[in-house]
Amino acid sequence: MNRTTNSLRGRTGLAVALLGGVLALSACGSDPAAEQTTATVAVTTTAVPTAAPAVNCAKADGDVETLICKNPELVSLDQQLASEFQHAVDEARDEPAATRAALQSAQENWKTSRDDCWKADDAHQCVLDAYRTRLVQLKIDDPDTARPETIDYRCPDPAKPFTARFYNQFDPPAAVLTWGSESAIVFAEQTGSGARYGSEGVEYWEHQGEVTVDFRGNKFVCSTP
């Protein structure tokens, strides 16, 4: 049983307990209208995921949270993510329960992955990439985000197409690269010429119509449309 299931059951149990308390008060002659409102609020609250607050640096827990609290850039990203996830939660209130549960599960899985960054050779870069990537994921899923056109490249293996979507409105600019059934989020990097994007294990460099790609160890050269 995963933590999401435990969390949902815990909140459901809390709602039942609150509702039981309301019924008990009813038997003692309290205001029925007020009781009904309280019960409705309790049940409604359990129907949507709740956004975790930003890291509390007064009570930093573990190596990664301690690392975050020592770095203003990471603190800022943590606060941005808390806000962006809250926005996603608000947008999902009218979605099916499975969609809301998937959103909560994805966030908890992300946090577990972020906390594993203490194992990385460069923990700071690992945490930085984790926040940037999750922010882009949430922004892409936001219906208010403009979806750029998909660029199809001419590559050596036409059976395994390579495409890209560039989100230049993000800070830093990002791109979603897809090679066959695999996708990766990469970020703009400084370069002397052309356009370069990268993240751990993935590199993209476009120069004069030629695109050099290293997709998790698979290297190939494509041309722009």
UniProtKB/TrEMBL annotation:
Record's keyword annotation contains Membrane: yes
**Keyword Transport belongs to the record:** no
Q: Which residues form the signal peptide?
A: 1-29
In terms of PROSITE patterns, this protein maps to: PROKAR_LIPOPROTEIN
Keywords of the record, alphabetical order, are: Lipoprotein, Membrane, Palmitate, Signal
> Sorted alphabetically, which Pfam families does this protein's record hold?
MliC
- InterPro entries associated with the record: Lysozyme_Inhibitor_LprI, MliC, MliC_sf
List each copy of the C-type lysozyme inhibitor domain by range.
153-218
Q: Which domain of life is it from?
A: Bacteria
* PANTHER family linked to this entry: LIPOPROTEIN LPRI
Task: Write the protein's name.
Answer: MliC family protein
Q: Which organism is it from?
A: Mycolicibacterium komossense
